[in-house]
Amino acid sequence: MDVRDDRSGTRVPSAQDGGRAARAWMRTMRRDQPVWVDHHSVVHVFRYEDVRRVVTDSEVFSSDRRRFMPGNGQLGRGNLTLMDPPEHTKLRRLVSQTFTPRTVAALEPRVRALATDLLEGTGEEFDLVQVLAHPLPLLVISELLGVPASDRALFRSWSAGFGRGEIAALHEMDSYLRRRSARARGCPDDALISRLTRVEVDGERLDDEEVASLSGLILLAGHITTTALIGSLVICLDENPAQAARVRADPGLIPAAVEETLRYRPAFTQVSRVCLRDDRIGGVDVARGSVVMAWLLSANHDEEVFPEPERFDLGRQPNRQASFGHGIHFCLGAPLARLEARVALEVLLGRFPELRVSAPHSLDFYDHPTGAVRRLPVTATRVGVR
Q1: Mean pLDDT value of segment 348-369
Q2: Which among 172, 186, 323, 380 has most CB atoms closer than 10 A?
Q3: How confident is the model over 276-310, as pLDDT tens digits?
Q4: CATH number assigned to the domain comprising residue 234
């Protein structure tokens, strides 16, 4: 991504270096130009409190961005990330009945078993993304939804297509999930897709289109976020060996490591909204209809909120990281992402007394908005092997 202002030459640096250049640029923007309008008239917001307002004030900043999604707008019905109240409120209440803390907590033994199985047979060198970070959340979400094992390769291909921006992949997945929803109505079970067809609020239930859209969102958002988080967690600890040693000595620090990774390397660097009326952000006029880009990466490194933001600090309290959003759009799958990342690191540290990133300076990252590493070659020593 290279967004340039034709008059000033200002641009958003790529995140493909792991975010170093972007973080440095955003530090300058927070100080000198905390609200910036680029040559496309997109409004970029960098400071924590401004970002928080944009993502929480749904009366001014709408999440319904389907007008900017050519060929894909029809997939927005039932997609919580593209909805505003009151429709969002009702649908979120419906989903919350099936995606409860108890449901997530009960998944821990299965997540641990899957992580253990995925690492079985690995050699001293392997790609952590391919072996663990990518398949683990995909398997967990697929099982949670009730996708047959024989169909999970389809989800893998659709997920890859989504990462490449292929609209056809989204349509294929949507059609598949609609069929699964219709089938679940006739043969109900305990899988999430089936439960989504049965939940009811004020006498209303979801139709197949809404169930498919929600299921697709849960799959893609949960999968992509957790894959990025697991990879970033390993990178952050590799970059900070003293902190990594503390985590090895005290596994009780793993949740703190997860939270600090969410702050330092958010899975999504940005989210967008549409301004519903003329407004002002940080003293800058924002016209009705403007697209507003709220930079989560910048908010998470705001010096006014996080002292020494470039330091990876396991003792950071409070850690008000914005990676899962705020308000009504706070990530529904946040507890599951935290659980999977924690368990993944517990299994890694228990299996490998030594684990380091191979050639860390040559890692290849995706560009905005994901902030995730594509491949993560690691060198590991198994327990009992020296």
Answers
A1: 92
A2: 323
A3: 999 999 999 999 999 999 999 999 999 999 999 99
A4: 1.10.630.10
Strand (E) or helix (H) holding 182: helix 167-186
In this structure, what are the phi and psi dihedrals at residue 300, rounded to the nearest 5 degrees?
Answer: -70, -10
Asked whether residue 12 is domain-assigned, the answer is no
| 357 contact partners, CB below 8 Å, separation of at least 6 | 234, 235, 238, 363, 376, 377, 378, 379
Q: In what order do the strands lie in the sheet with 125-127?
A: 125-127, 377-381, 354-357
Query: Which domain range does residue 225 map to?
Result: 20-377
As a whole number of angstroms, the distance between CA 108 and CA 368 comes to: 31
Which pLDDT does position 206 carry in this prediction? 83
Q: Which amino acid is at 65?
A: R
State pLDDT tens for residues 178-233. 999 999 998 888 888 998 888 776 778 888 988 888 888 888 777 889 999 999 99
Q: Work out the pLDDT band at 74, boundaries 50, 70, 90.
A: very low
Contacts for 188-197 with beta carbons within 8 Å, 24 or more apart?
189/146, 190/146, 191/144, 191/145, 191/146, 192/98, 192/99, 192/144, 192/145, 192/146, 192/218, 193/145, 193/146, 194/146, 195/97, 195/98, 196/94, 196/95, 196/98
Residue 138 belongs to a domain: yes
Q: What is the pLDDT of residue 163?
A: 63
- Asked if the structure places residue 385 within a domain, the reply is no
11 occurs within a structural domain: no
What are the backbone dihedrals phi and psi of residue 266, each rounded to the nearest 5 degrees, phi first? -60, 145
What crossing angle do the helices spanning 208-239 and 87-96 adopt, rounded to 10°? 70
